[in-house]
Amino acid sequence: MIDAAGYLVQYQAARSILDNLLEHFMTTLNAAGRFLVAASALLVSLAFAPAQAADEYYFYVQNKTDSRITKLQVSEDKKTWGYFDIGKGISPGKKVKLTWDSSANDEECEQWVRAVFADGSTSDVSKMDFCEDLDTPIVFE
Predict the structure, then answer these.
(1) What is the C-alpha separation between 91 and 97, in angstroms, rounded?
(2) Distance (Å, whole) CA 35 – CA 96
(3) How does the average pLDDT of the chain come out, rounded?
(4) For 93-108, how does the pLDDT look when each residue is reduced to its tens digit (9 = 90+)?
């Protein structure tokens, strides 16, 4: 049985191969041929797409502090930090479900995570595996 991370890796590999083939053929075919190749590639990519992609890439964050979380930052190397869009923030005492942005699909499952609070302070940095146990919240205390 393939877990979600393994399935994602297989999907991404198949998608990459299809994209490369499509680019090669599109440069050599006429308009009708390009349409057929593009339609075929779309059908194949849909066949390999995860059935519940939108539901698979989520995680929970729980704020047990007295301050609003204004940013949730992530990094693969603790040097370059990106962030998740958390809207207006996460209020003290709240637990929210966040959706993994598809732009981060090529990143590693394990990421360093920290919260930035309304008072300007940051939480301790902790390592999270976003491919495992999506229902256990990241808790900031």
Answers:
(1) 13
(2) 43
(3) 76
(4) 999 998 877 766 777 8
